[in-house]
Design brief:
Blueprint: H1 2-16, H2 21-33, H3 45-53, H4 57-62, H5 70-86, H6 92-110, H7 113-124, H8 135-138, H9 172-175, E1 185-186, H10 200-207, H11 220-228, E2 237-239, E3 245-250, E4 258-263, E5 268-272, E6 282-285, E7 292-297, E8 304-309, E9 313-318, E10 323-329, E11 334-339, E12 346-351, E13 355-360, E14 370-372, E15 381-384, E16 391-395, E17 400-404, E18 417-419, E19 426-431, E20 438-443, E21 447-452, E22 462-467, E23 482-484, E24 487-494, E25 502-506, E26 511-515, E27 527-530, E28 536-540, E29 545-550
Antiparallel strand pairs: 1-10, 2-29, 3-4, 4-5, 5-6, 7-8, 8-9, 9-10, 11-12, 12-13, 13-14, 15-16, 16-17, 17-18, 19-20, 20-21, 21-22, 23-24, 24-25, 25-26, 27-28, 28-29
Helix pairs in contact: 1-2
This protein binds a DNA duplex through helix 3.
Length: 551
DNA sequence: AAAGCATGCCACC
DNA sequence: TGGTGGCCCTGCTT
């Protein structure tokens, strides 16, 4: 009996998508051992990779955690494994019934249900939202005059010299557009008619005083219900930039939802939900030429959006002045920044050579002092303590360090505290939003970790470890867990699980909610962020679409 | 329409 | 250490 049952159970569970790659693997293993549909129940290409990934050292070490206890597994298989020996005692009716079941199984296997369900899901997958940037705008093609060869023009061919061999190791330099010149860039949207002015409502909205941060900490139950109330619909998805989103943020205003996203080719899109300017409320700009790794609105001057790019530029979009001003600039390789003061005038900026710079926006030029980390080329995230602004946390290669900006040296600065336990590279590290008593990290070893930084001792203790598939691969922005600024102890993170979802966890590791929607959420949302004051959550995907869950 | 292509990551050897 | 191979989304082109 259980042959068909476990098959149907498997399919049902898969359809319900309560399955992690781990327990899927376990179920498949069980089914194969029982001689059920051994071939057909192999991984579809989609499911195959998590298994392969588990070959990595860190995962292999912890892999056993995910297996069910053996007796539980055996209990589930009991009737199957003993069935053959019992055949002799069965009535003719029962034998016939078993034979029917066997034939049904063979049939089900032969039609390749597993693959079929995957294909069905592909077929029924909703079309991406057509809101926001239109295709015409997304791919602006230059209209070139018709070309005629010299031969057709009946002219003598010129002797052309080959361009010099490109030098340097950066192959991207050949293909990517040149970096924007320094100095203020006019804030001209690239997706609306040339010469048209910024909509006046944008300035109005951006100028809106950020409501006094009344951080009313809810109890967990209250928080859960507020989060469960947040929904998505077709009006809350739009293509805001052309390509893969690297960073995104909410504007702090509350009368409308205004969002910004930065993409792989240095574009920055602004989107007001329900807005009537641009493409469905979307305005697109190009202040940079390579990925916009980090962006944030100034809390003291909300008409300003700071954006940082791998191309080495850090700019300040000022809606009032309608320009992108220079803030800081190096040749190449800016990675991350955070505000160091409440007035947002000083910043800590990190590059991928492992240096951090303290930048004061009030003094012109690159006035900064540098800190050289022990592990060059591994700095991925900096984040400033919410209360004690002299402290900032740095995700280095396999260790997270907390530094005191007052005690920085040119090299070999002493960390105030270190967070140990990561076995692979760390993609992000953030102080908890209200007290800074916790640091939340996301690591390529497939773990999210929470540390206790309340005492700031030389070694901050690890409190919680949460297993989470971080293998986004090359084409997706890496996942990072980020706190809800309204709730000291809860955070949000994207997920690779199908159906696609965004998860909210408590610092204890307890899952609070999974945001899902068969119609409007069908892709991995790598970039996630909560609104600073409203019940709203954003998620950005690899095709430039922003998704909003709100109440 | 199905298939192919492009694609700024990481860990491992 | 640099080179290599696997990651496996999405949108657009052929």
């Amino acid at each position: 009996m259980s042959a068909l049952m476990s098959l149907s159970k498997l399919l049902t569970r898969d359809t319900l998508q309560e399955m992690t790659p781990e327990n899927l693997e376990a179920t498949v293993r069980r089914s194969s051992r029982n001689g059920l549909a051994p071939k057909r129940l192999q991984y579809s290409p989609e499911e195959e990779t998590p298994k392969k990934k588990r070959k990595t050292k860190a995962v292999a070490e912890n892999g056993s955690q995910n297996k069910k206890p053996k007796d539980e597994e055996d209990a589930e298989n009991n009737d199957v494994e003993h069935a053959p020996e019992e055949y002799g005692r069965l009535s003719a009716y029962e034998l016939e019934r078993l034979e029917n079941i066997r034939q049904n199984q063979a049939f089900l296997s032969s039609i390749n249900l597993f693959q079929a369900t995957e294909e069905f899901k592909q077929l029924t997958r909703p079309k991406p939202s057509q809101r926001g940037l239109t295709r015409a705008h997304a791919a602006v093609k230059e209209v070139l005059p018709p070309r005629k060869s010299l031969r057709l023009q009946k002219k003598e061919a010129e002797i052309l010299e080959l361009p010099p061999e490109p030098r340097g190791t950066l192959i991207y330099e050949q293909s990517s557009p040149a970096k924007k010149p320094s100095g203020p860039l006019p804030m001209d949207p690239v997706n609306v008619e040339e010469g048209s002015k910024l909509p006046p409502q944008l300035l109005e909205l951006c100028s809106e005083d950020a409501k006094e941060d009344k951080k009313i900490q809810l109890d967990l139950k209250g928080y859960r219900s507020s989060v469960k109330n947040m929904k998505i619909n077709e009006d809350k998805v739009a293509k805001v930039v052309k390509d893969r989103i690297f960073s995104a943020t909410f504007h702090p205003c509350t009368s409308s939802l205004l969002l910004a996203a930065g993409d792989k080719w240095g574009k920055v899109g602004l989107w007001k939900l329900g807005g009537d300017w641009g493409d469905d409320g979307v305005l697109l700009f190009q202040p940079h030429t390579r990925p916009v790794g980090c962006m944030a609105f100034s809390r003291s001057h909300p008409t300003q959006l700071l954006s940082l790019s791998y191309d080495g530029s850090l700019r300040c979009m000022d809606v009032e002045k309608a320009v992108f001003d220079d803030v800081y600039d190096i040749e190449d390789g800016l990675k991350t920044f955070d505000f160091m003061s409440h007035d947002c005038s000083t910043l800590v900026v990190g590059n991928w050579y492992g240096e951090v710079a303290i930048v004061d926006r009030r003094t012109p030029g690159n006035s900064h002092e540098s800190l050289h980390t022990l592990d060059p080329k591994t700095l991925r995230c900096v984040n400033v303590h919410p209360l004690q602004k002299q402290y900032f946390v740095v995700a280095e290669s396999k260790v997270v360090s907390i530094y005191d900006s007052r005690n920085l040296k040119k090299t070999k600065s002493q960390a105030v505290s270190q967070l140990h336990g990561h076995s692979l590279s760390i993609s992000s590290a953030y102080f908890s939003p209200c007290t800074g008593n916790r640091v939340l990290t996301s690591c390529m070893d497939n773990n999210i970790r929470i540390y206790d930084t309340s005492t700031m001792t030389t070694k901050s203790p690890l409190l919680t470890t949460i297993r989470h598939d971080m293998q986004t691969g090359r084409w997706l922005t890496k996942l990072s867990a980020v706190w809800d600024p309204k709730q000291e102890d809860c955070f949000v993170v994207g997920s690779m699980m199908k159906p696609r979802r965004v998860q909210v966890f408590h610092e204890s590791g307890q899952l609070q909610h999974s945001f899902m929607d068969s119609e409007n959420l069908s892709t991995v949302l790598s970039v996630t962020a909560f609104h600073p004051t409203r019940n709203a959550l954003l998620g950005g995907n690899a095709s430039g679409r922003l998704h909003v869950f709100s109440d």
